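Subject: mismatched residue count in predicted assembly?

I count 832 residues in my input, but I want to confirm that the predicted structure covers every chain. Input:
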Amino acid sequence: MNDISVLTGGRAGDGINSAGLLVAHLFNHMGYQTYMYFDYPSLIKGGHNFTITRAADQKIGAHRDRCDYLLALSQDSIDLHRELIHDSTVVLFDSGRVQGDGQGIPVEEILNAEKAPSVMGNSCIIGAFAKAAGIPFKVVETVIWRQIPKDPEKNLIIARRGYDAVGEKRVIPRAGDTCCPLLTGNEVIGLGLLHGGLDAYVAYPMTPTSNLLHFLAGTARDFPITVVHPENEIAVMLMALGFSYAGKKTAVGTSGGGFCLMTEGFSFSGASEVPVVVVMGQRTGPSTGLPTYTGQADLQFILHAGQGEFPRLVVAPGDPEQAYVWSSIALSLAWKCQVPAVILVDKTLCEGTYSLDEKAIVVPDTGEPEPAVDSGPYRRYEITGNGISPNRHPPSRDAVIKVNSYAHDEAGITTERADMVVIMTEKRQNKARALKGETDLLECVKTYGNKDASTAILCWGSTLLVCREVAESRGIRVIQPVVLSPFPEASLKVALSGIMDLISVEENADGQLRTLCSQHGIAVNHHIAKLDGRPFSVEELEARLKEAI
Amino acid sequence: MPSQNLITGAQNTWCPGCGNFTIQFALRNAIQGLVTDGIPLENIVLVTGIGCHAKMGDYLDINSFYSIHGRTIPVATGIKLANPDLTVICCAGDGDAYAEGLDHLIFAAKRNTDITVIIHNNRVYGLTTGQYTPTSPLGFRGKSTPEGTPEEPFNPLSLMLASGAGFVARSTSRKMPHLAGIIGQALRHKGFSFIDVLQICATYFNMTELYDRQGYELSGHDTADFQAACRKVEEWDYNRNSPIAFGVFYKQEKTCFEERFRRHQPSPGGREEQIRAFLERKR
Ligand SMILES: Cc1ncc(C[n+]2csc(CCOP(=O)(O)OP(=O)(O)O)c2C)c(N)n1
Ligand code: SF4
Ligand SMILES: [Mg+2]
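Triage response: the counts match. Full output below for your records.
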């Protein structure tokens, strides 16, 4: 089995993310499945950035605690990662900046000789890596032509100089003929939303979803969508509700801090039945926390955010294919049931780069909202069998469309009538049942690994792929609820049949999914927590699991 | 089907003598004027905040978005961006727009979003039973400031001029025809229109005597002259008893926020084709 890890390190501003991505593309064109983790502190220049690009024959979404090639553009890249280096690690470094054992490449000299700008240093290192790994230069050519839009010719010259500067060290074989699109989770979420019919996206920058804002702002050239970056997250949420009232399918994006500011509007969405989708990318909290690191500590917050009681859809995709499918579903169901929806993700998924398996992307048809039927004067909150009222948008002839944050009557006029308050609460409960009916038609709980095992890992969100990898090697089961609200209790209980030992793996201290399960009568025996903002490596989870069982 | 007089059957709960009644009928008349001009009634949307003023959303029989406290403007901005053919009006309180949601007001002026913002400036929090607001005079004794406010008010008109507003006016609930006229002009102004309406709060801050005594209607003022507008709005600082001018202080047409959003032709081919093309580039 092929399983190769490449660590690329440098200072912030060196373009380490792009360099790691080029490595991923080389593997991709050699027929590998890839995954790239990007680790960076919250600063713009200096500091230590690194990527771990991993390639394997099968689908992956986690890094390992070793590296087979180390591409060092800074001294820290070697000094800070000594524990990952083993006897057969091939170390390539920029000899102008780094001292170490391995193969130095005089990057600056080469750039000067070719009169190339310093940004092209990455191409030099990538060329050297390709040679050391025995990757044919033809592949380097393909990747540079496809992935470096700015002056590919010059980049190729530089890459060739790097290629010629070193010898073959540790040759990696071609793994197959597949060549997947390589996308970040943010991009996949954006595409899923666009697939679902997104008309508008409103956001204030915040890691880890800023890149979703950037991506959608860029795609606004090709897609008929409006992208707005307003003054703060309060405005974001309310502006989105304005778009939605006027008939536009709208999403917002943020992280925990921004979502705190959105909660009043979130509750308003629940009360007024003006739908909205929130892409909520978790990072390490509480408060500003570790802005550029990951975490899963906002589940209970999202489940309870906003005053009062109202139905909400919360989905937590675990891999890019799920992210595409469930982003689209979240948008469709939010509009069909007129509820707020949250796509709960994290830094690992948002900013990780994955090989996308297009064949695994099958978006189920969730059906269209029922068309508004004319039955006397239009009433925005008309009581119907399933609690969902016809949703019309201005301008609509002969209809006065009133939405309201106060308790209201069917026409949308404020009321304090005791009976009406109860009727409208029951209407929302009815809608909650309608929403549950919709999600029950979908595969809300995914099961992987050994179906006969009596031990299972319970996980949610981006830890799915590391859990799957470890579970498969240990012959145990993985159970992942993708929908967290309305909670798929029955399907989860079916998925748990035969399980004696249930271990939750969550990047939080309290075991928030475990708590949720216990509220539904599902006991979790162990909780494996991860608190440092870094995603689990395969080895780390293996070791933690061994301790637990 | 909206009622002929555009008034809903909702029970009106404003206090007797409240200036909101005047604003209600002035706004209703101005809307009827727009409809007479040919703007379909269904193209008009009213966004209200939370406060006594906001009940306008219940009382006028037109499309309405009864928002949360301080948040009329972002909602109105979203509606206008979503469909620039709509005429979007905000009825906001002084607590609403000058305290809780001040950021949005400044940004709407800065962006020149084509909406009309009417501030029911009773210089008090009415619905929460009488606390000081950003435009209450220094020393105002409200329930949260029994010894008098320790803050001077700010001048919302100066603030709006500094923020780039293209239509800045003041009127009062003491002058119904004047108010209806100003609202009519604001609704027809292309771009962000701001009207500070000195509204009588009969219960918590009745300034009838002051506004009748000190108020006068602007005349001979050049609404195109920004410097003149800046000087004129400083005549009264919302604190002392100097003359209080009513009318349009400044009016200038410029490009609106919505127009700056490129309503370009999206690339040919449907969404799915664009998604496939994007995936192709990522290989
Ligand atoms: C977030 C929030 N904070 C506080 C309140 C309570 N509240 C309701 S109305 C109001 C003030 C109203 O004052 P103003 O906007 O001037 O309106 P008026 O009643 O004077 O017309 C406040 C503080 C609220 N509804 N929401
Ligand atoms: S409290 Fe003041 S503003 Fe509110 S209804 Fe009464 S008079 Fe009008
Ligand atoms: Mg007030």
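Residues B 51, 93-95, 122, 124-126, 133 surround magnesium ion (ligand 3) (CB under 6 Å). Marking this ticket as 'not a bug'.
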